[in-house]
Amino acid sequence: MAIExxxxxxxxxxxxxxxxxxxxxxxxxxxxxxPHIKGIAxxxxxxxxxxxxxxxxxxxxxGPMIRKGARGEGKWQAVSWDEALDHTAEKLQKVxxxxxxxxxxxxxxxxxxxxxxxxxxxxxxSPNWSNHDASCARNVHHAALSLFGxxxxxxxxxLKNARHVVLQTRNMFEAxxxxxxxxxxxALDQGCRLTVxxxxxxxxxxxxxxxxxxxPGTDYAFNLAVIHVLLNHGLYDKGFANRxxxxxxxxxxxxxxxxxxxxxxxxxxxxxxxVRFVRELATAKPAVLWHPGWMTARYRDSFYMSRSIYIxxxxxxxxxxxxxxxxxxxxxxxxxxxxxxxxxxxPPPEEKRADGxxxxxxxxxxxxxxxHLGFDAIQSEDPYPVKAYVAYRHDPLMGFPDPEALxxxxxxxxxxxxxxxxxxxxxxxxDVVLPLSPYLERESIIACKNGLTPYFFLRRRAVKPRxxxxxxxxxxxxxxxxxxxxxxxxxxxxxxxxxxxxxxxVTSEDFDARGFVxxxxxxxxxSPDNLGFKTASGKIxxxxxxxxxxxxxxxxxxxxxxxxxxxxxxxxxxxGVHTQGHTVNNPLLFEQVSENTLWMHxxxxxxxxxxxxxxxxxxxxxxxxxxxxxxxxxxxPEAVFxxxxxxxxxxxxxxAFGKGLAEQRLMCGGLQKWDRAGGALAMQDHYVTVRKAAx
Length: 695
Ligand SMILES: Nc1nc2c(c(=O)[nH]1)N[C@H]1C(S)=C(S)[C@@H](COP(=O)(O)OP(=O)(O)OC[C@H]3O[C@@H](n4cnc5c(=O)[nH]c(N)nc54)[C@H](O)[C@@H]3O)O[C@H]1N2
Ligand SMILES: Nc1nc2c(c(=O)[nH]1)N[C@H]1C(S)=C(S)[C@@H](COP(=O)(O)OP(=O)(O)OC[C@H]3O[C@@H](n4cnc5c(=O)[nH]c(N)nc54)[C@H](O)[C@@H]3O)O[C@H]1N2
Ligand code: SF4
Ligand SMILES: [Mo]
Known about the structure:
With 695 residues, the chain is an alpha/beta fold. Among the domains are: 4-56, ADC-like domains (N-terminal domain of TfIIb, Single Sheet), CATH 2.20.25.90; 157-326, 3-Layer(aba) Sandwich (Dimethylsulfoxide Reductase, domain 2); 568-692, Barwin-like endoglucanases (Beta Barrel). The protein has 22 helices and 25 strands. The protein has a seven-stranded mixed β-sheet. A hairpin with an 8-residue loop joins β1 and β2 (18-24). α8 (219-232) packs antiparallel against α11 and α8 packs parallel to α13 (302-315). The chain is globular and about 70 Å long.
C-alpha cells in the first residue's frame, strides 16, 4: 500500500506542535513537524517522535473499566463502552439530583481543545471547570493580568527577532516547545545574546553568553535590583515609559533600597556583574525578551517575580515591540472571525465557583479558577458540597503536591472519574477509567492559535485505534446523549467542525493541503501607538487596584526565606525526553532516561559522606524516599534538584515501576502552600534533609 501523509497535532505534551504523519497500511511510518509552518519546518522533539511507541504500548488502558475493590487497590472489571457510559452518566446524575450540577468539579489539561470540556461542564450546570494551571503558569498569567489587563497569552515571544534573550526559571532547550527552540537557535546564529538565570547549569545555560547561578528563591530580589539600575542609571526607554507606564514614580520610590549591592548579599551575584548585564540589555532595547517564566508554581512570591519581569520588559520598551513581546493577534484583530465556541451551546452558570475565584478572590481570572481551592471545597463543603470529580487528561496525584493528603480529600467524593490515554496515579485511584485514544488515533475539535499570524489547526486521526479506546468528542457525546445534553450529542466529528467553522469563511477541506489555515498573510505587529492594554487607564499599571482591594500590595517588599541549617530547598524541572509523569513508561523514552537522580552540590554532599551514585534517604515532615545522588559543582549548594515525573508505583507500568523518586510526595502540607497574589501553588517552598542510606 502507498504511503499516506496525514496532517495532525502532536499530543506528547501540552505544546501541541503541528505534525505530519506518514502512514502505511494503517501503521505509523514516520512523524515529523508540519513542514509548512515557519519555525517548525519538519522538526519535532524526541518525545514527539516517540508517539509511535505510545500507540503500540500494551501497557496502557485498553478498554473501559469500573473499579471493583477499594479505591487504589487496582481491581478492575472490564466493561463495554455502553456499560461504562451508562454507569458514569448514572453516577453523575445521582450527584446532580442530590446536590445540583454545581456539585461536579472537572479539571483538564488546559490547552486549545478545552472548549469541548467547558461546554460539557456548563451543560451539566456546573461553574466548576478547572485545569492544571494552579500547578503551572497561573502566577505568570495573573502577573500579566495585574499589569496589562490581559493574560500571559496577550503577548507572544518574538525570539526570532530578539537581540537579547533572558531565560529566568525557564530552560528553553530542555523544557521544549519546538518552534521556540528553533527560533532561539536561529536568533543566536544571527548574533542574539542569551543570558540564563537558574539555580543549576542546564543545557540552556551551556548555550548562554552569560549564566547567573542564583541562590534559589531570590529571583525577585535580583529583579528588583535590575529595576533599580534601569531607573537610577536612566537606562530605561523614557519615551515608552512616559507613554505607557502609569505610576512610574511610585515604582521608582519603591525600588530605591534595592541596590545591586543589597541584591548581592541575597542572591550571590556580584553587584558589578548585575550592573554590566543591565547596561548590556539597555543597548539591545527594545528587542529584548526577558521571558516571564512558564512553570512558576514554585514560590509564594512567584507572582511578584513574574510581575517584575514584565515590568523590566516594559522599562526596556519591549512590550509590544518586534524582537520583544509583541501583542498576540486574535482572528478579529486581523479582520477575521474566530471559531464558534461550543461553550455557547449552553447558558453561563449562575452559581458561584466552588473555589471562590470571582467572588472570594475577585482579582483572579475566572476562566479555569484554581484547582487546589476546588479540592479545598471538597474537603470543607464550603461554599457547597462537591461530590463528583472528573480528572480529564489530568493527573493531580502526580502534578499536585502531597498526594496522600489529596487522596484523603477525594475519599469524600461519591464519584471519581478518570479519562486518560495512559495509566496514571489518578486513574488508578478512580472509580471509572474511560480510556482515550492517544492523539495519533483520534480526531480533535478545531483549535485556534493566536499570534503574530493567527491560525486555525486541526488534528486528524492518523491510524485506527488499536484497542477499545475512544476519541475525546466520542466520550463527551456519549455522555451528553445519556444526560440530556442534546446540543452536545454530536454523531460525527465533521458536524462539530462545521459548527465551529460557521461564519468564518473556512471549511474543513481547507485543512487538507497543509493541516492549518492561516488567517493573515504574514506576521502582524501592532503600531506602537496601539498596544491595547485592557486596564482602566489603558496603560501598564504599576498599581493594580483589583489586588490592592484585597489587601495585596502591587509593589511588595522582598522577604527573605532560606532553608535552615542542615536542610535543602527542593527544586525540580524537566529533561528533554520526558513529559511530566506520563512518558517514563514509554518504551522508547524510557530507554533514554529511565530514572531520576538527586542533584547535589559536591561539597554539600561530601560533608554528608555521600559520593556520586550513593543511595540517599530524602525526608520532609515524615515523608521520605530513596534516590541515587548525582554530585555536581553546577548547582547552588542550598538546593537539591530532581527531574519531575519519576517514582512510579503502579504495577501496570513495568518499565517505570520503582524507578527514582517522586518529589511531590515530599511536599507535605503543600496543598495549603500557595501564592496568595498569584493563586498558584508554591511547590519549592519545601525543605528536605538528606542522609546516606544504610547499606
Ligand atoms: N512536583 C512537581 N509538580 C508538577 C510539576 C513539576 O515539575 N514538579 N510540573 C507541573 C506542570 S508544569 C504541569 S503542566 C502539571 C502537569 O500535570 P498533568 O496535566 O497532570 O500532567 P500530564 O502528564 O501532562 O497529563 C496528565 C494525564 O493526561 C493524559 N493525557 C491524555 N491525553 C493527553 C494529551 O492529549 N496530551 C497530554 N499531554 N496528556 C494527555 C496523560 O496520559 C497523563 O496521564 O504538573 C505540574 N506539577
Ligand atoms: N521536555 C519537556 N518539555 C516540556 C514539558 C515537559 O514535561 N518535558 N512540559 C511543558 C510544560 S507543561 C511546561 S510548563 C514547560 C516548563 O518549562 P520550564 O519552566 O522552562 O521548565 P522547568 O524545567 O520546570 O524549569 C525551568 C528551570 O527552572 C529552574 N529553577 C528552579 N528553581 C529556580 C529558582 O528559584 N530560580 C531560578 N532562576 N531558576 C529555578 C530549574 O532548575 C529549571 O532548569 O515545559 C514544557 N515543555
Ligand atoms: S514539544 Fe515535542 S512533545 Fe511537545 S507537542 Fe511539540 S513535538 Fe510534541
Ligand atoms: Mo506546565
